Each structure stands twice: as C-alpha cells, then as structure tokens.
Amino acid sequence: MPRDNIPKQSLRKLQQFFTKTLDTNNDGLVNWTDFEAAIESIVPQEDATRNARLKVLRKRLEQHFQKYFWDLCAVGDANKDGNIDLDVMNDIIRGLKEKNEFPEWYEGLHKALYRATEFLDERAITKDEFASMLISWDIEEEAAGKAYDFITDNGKKTMDYNLFSEFMKKFFLNDTVNHPLNLGLDK
C-alpha cells in the first residue's frame, strides 16, 4: 500500500490535518455530512438567510465543496458508499507525492478553503488573516505564523491565492520533521 511508504511523522501530520479540516465529526471517515458541517461552521445557514452577501458566499461555498467532494470520491471511494477513510486519503496523498502532480480536484480543495475565508483570488492576505484562517482549523497561531513567514520568505512574497496553493502543495509533499510547513501537526 502506498501509505506504508509514508514516514511516521508525515502520517501523524496527515491524520491531524484529516481530522481538523475534513473529518468534522471524528468518526474516521469523510463524507458529505462532514462537508456540510464545514460549510455550516464557515457560513451558518441562519446568517445566510439574513444577509444577502453571506447567502451568495454560502451558495458558492456549497458549490465548490460539492465539486471537490464528488471529485474526491471519484478517486478515493472505491466501494461507492460516499465515505473516504484516513487510510484511503493517505493513499491518495502518497500517490500525489509519487507523481508530483496535483489534479484539478485537489486544486478545487485549495480554492474552496481559500474562498471559504472570503479571500479573493487577486487579493493578498496578511499574516494575521492567514493565521486566523488556520486557527479556524485548530492550528496553533504560532505554527501558522511560522508557516506564513516561511512561505512568504518573511514577507518578501505576497500571500495571494497562488502562494496559498503552493503552500498547500508543499504541506502535503514535505516529509521534513518539525518543518514550519507542517503547521506543528507532526509532533
């Protein structure tokens, strides 16, 4: 199995990311219910019904997450039950690492995560905004700050969508223990 070739620290990092960002009910599976819960935590339905801008944002978020979820199921849901477990997700990530290729569905995740925080593709985000986004995934603020400093070369590069996407790719590709890109999830 591809997951057998993933270093132990990287497996820990992937498991932490899986449970913090995708497996919202901590049942060891990712399914549409988890995505709905993530959408609700980002833009609550109650808020969306009272605010036209939030209603549009929620609708876009639902569309992006739905596309990502079904694209993910197409590559990771072999028995077609609508569930993806951690082992399968690790196999998918290892496959991405071996090919050093990130398909459209994976880019869809980046866009959904970035846009979920109401950032526009053209706009640069500050270190505080980046940290706030990662804190919402239960990532420690200090770890988020270190990752931001690393990926932006201490602010010399602008954190826009393209750099965020690069960060996400490097997060999954990096096997170096205690590296800032690991967001402290490999400890």
TrEMBL record:
Keywords: Calcium. GO terms for molecular function: calcium ion binding. Residues 9-45 form the EF-hand domain. It comes from the Eukaryota. This is EF-hand domain-containing protein. InterPro entries: EF-hand-dom_pair, EF_Hand_1_Ca_BS, EF_hand_dom. It comes from Didymodactylos carnosus.
